[in-house]
Design a protein that fits this description.
The protein is globular. The chain has seven helices and 16 strands. The chain starts with 5 loop residues before the first strand and ends with a helix. The strands form four sheets. A six-stranded mixed beta sheet has the order 5-7-10-9-11-15. It has about 270 residues and is α+β, with helices and mostly antiparallel strands. Strand 1 and strand 2 form a beta hairpin. The chain has one domain: CNF1/YfiH-like putative cysteine hydrolases, CATH 3.60.140.10.
């Protein structure tokens, strides 16, 4: 299993602003997973919008712009929206697009941000998955959306961003009952008993398994296993500090059409 391979530091060696995935970078996908030090992110329902483009313009963002992001009101499900324009698209936890240069945004503070890229068809999907999204199979929905658009899962690349780990994520019986109903038996491989009526839940493994069941191999899945609750120096965490702030995962299909990329690859 691969892991994010690069970190963007602030000026003068200050703490990292964001992380990137080696798999996605090699595929040419502009993307980032923010740390708590990344500026310009506001609550999505802020009347000014979730991004401060002036603050964002002042920091390195790789090949991503400082405005024009597409995002949704995330409701802990597996609803899907096609992004054809920037701004608030509606309610959903899975976004897909084939528009080059249109960045998608997923907001988290413990839940998993999952980026899935089809470099052959040049389509992008992003999912937001906490325990409810995992029960609803948001990761599988995202893969299936790309597959329905002529994609082949064995071509896809996926990265899971920083999120709460099994070291810190304790759940109780109502959550286990939902997992059992959705994934009979399989959920047992995702939990460790933590006392009467308590379990530590590994959302990383649960979602890796969903991605594998959808057709990806483990080598196609990049997961740093960075826990937002453990790493207070790098990340916000809803469980550790409710209301502290939000992290954001950003990604965009690189500029240029699929036809032009294929043409340029010809001898």
């Amino acid at each position: 299993m691969a892991s994010p391979s690069s970190v963007s530091r602030g000026p003068d060696g200050e703490p990292p602003l964001y992380l990137t995935s080696g798999l996605l970078t090699t595929a040419g996908l502009p993307h980032l997973f923010s740390t708590r030090h990344f500026p310009g992110v506001r609550p999505w329902k802020d009347r000014r919008g979730p991004f401060d483009s002036i603050a964002l313009a002042g920091v390195d963002r790789g090949a991503l712009p400082s405005d024009g992001f597409a995002f949704a009101r995330q409701i802990h499900g597996a609803g899907i929206l096609e992004a054809t324009r920037p701004g608030l698209l509606g309610q959903a936890d899975v976004l897909v697009t084939d528009r080059p240069g249109l960045p998608l945004a997923i907001f988290t503070a413990d839940c998993l941000p999952i980026v899935i890229y089809d470099p052959q068809e040049r389509r992008l999907a992003m999912a937001h998955a906490g325990w409810r999204g995992t029960v609803a199979a948001a990761a599988r929905v995202a893969v299936d959306a790309l597959a329905k658009a002529r994609g082949r899962p064995h071509d896809f690349l996926a990265a899971i961003g920083p999120s709460i780990g099994p070291c810190c994520y304790e759940v109780d019986l109502p959550v286990i009952e939902k997992l059992e109903a959705a994934f009979p038996g399989a959920w047992r491989g995702w939990v460790t008993a933590a006392g009467p009526g308590k379990w530590m839940l590994d959302l990383w493994k649960a979602n890796e398994d969903q991605l594998k069941d959808a057709g990806l191999s483990l080598a196609q899945i990049d997961n740093p296993r960075l826990c937002t609750a453990c790493r207070a120096d790098l990340f916000f965490s809803y469980r550790r500090g409710r209301g502290e702030g939000r992290l954001v995962a950003l990604a965009a299909v690189p500029p240029g059409s699929r036809a032009s990329v294929l043409e340029s690859a010809r001898p």
